């Protein structure tokens, strides 16, 4: 047991989760949602947070409104896919092909979007605050109202 002292000297005992096998990952995706995506190539509103999706084919996929926070999509071909309104905060999309994809109104805060191919990608009104990016990878992308990594808004 680990003890912590709080306000007024109150002592609270906290069992170490790892010692009793109750530790859980920071992100836990829904296995049924993962299987649905693998089977149908779409999963609107699904919870795929923290999932490693690199083994799937996701070209022209519908992940509208999905939770992909912390997911690994690095190096994937996501061309023509629809991520409108999805949460990709902290996701790894490094080197992904996202041409002709829809990331409008998507949360890309703190995501790694370096070295992507974003030709004619719709990023209108997306939030990229704190994202790691190479601005030249986004030439030809639609970015009206997009919040850029430094917090400025593209008009």
Q: Helices and strands in order, then pairings?
A:
Elements: E1 2-5, E2 11-14, H1 31-40, E3 112-113, E4 132-133
Parallel strand pairs: 3-4
Antiparallel strand pairs: 1-2
Q: How would you describe this structure to a colleague?
A:
The chain has one helix spanning about 30-40, and strands at about 1-5, 10-15, 110-115, 130-135. By secondary structure, it is low in regular secondary structure. The chain has one domain: Pectate Lyase C-like (3 Solenoid). Strand 1 (about 1-5) and strand 2 (about 10-15) form a beta hairpin. Residues about 1-25 have low confidence and may be disordered.
Structure keywords:
155 residues; little secondary structure; Pectate Lyase C-like; two-stranded antiparallel ribbon; two-stranded parallel sheet; 1 helix; 8% strand
The N- to C-terminal Cα distance equals 54 Å
Unreliable residue stretches: 1-25
Estimate the mean pLDDT confidence.
Answer: 86
Q: Total number of helical segments? A: 1
- Write out the CATH superfamily name: E3 ubiquitin-protein ligase SopA
What order do the SSEs take from the amino end to the carboxyl end, as H and E? EEHEE
Fold-level CATH name: Pectate Lyase C-like
CATH class, named: Mainly Beta
Overall domain count:
1
Tell me which CATH architecture applies here.
Answer: 3 Solenoid
Within the largest sheet, what's the order of strands? 1-2
Total strand segments: 4
Give me the secondary-structure category: little secondary structure
């Amino acid at each position: 047991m680990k003890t912590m002292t709080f306000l007024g000297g109150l002592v609270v005992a906290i069992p170490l989760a790892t010692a009793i096998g109750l530790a859980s990952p920071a992100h836990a995706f829904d296995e049924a949602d993962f299987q649905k995506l693998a089977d149908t190539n779409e999963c609107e509103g699904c919870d795929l947070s923290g999932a490693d999706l690199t083994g799937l084919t996701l070209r022209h996929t519908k992940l509208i409104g999905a939770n992909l926070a912390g997911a690994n999509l690095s190096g994937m071909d996501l061309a023509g896919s629809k991520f409108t309104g999805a949460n990709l905060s902290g996701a790894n999309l490094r080197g992904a092909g996202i041409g002709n994809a829809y990331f409008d109104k998507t949360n890309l805060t703190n995501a790694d979007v370096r070295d992507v191919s974003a030709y004619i990608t719709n990023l209108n009104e997306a939030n990229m605050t704190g994202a790691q990016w190479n601005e030249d990878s986004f030439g030809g992308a639609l970015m009206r109202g997009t919040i850029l990594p430094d917090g400025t808004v593209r008009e």
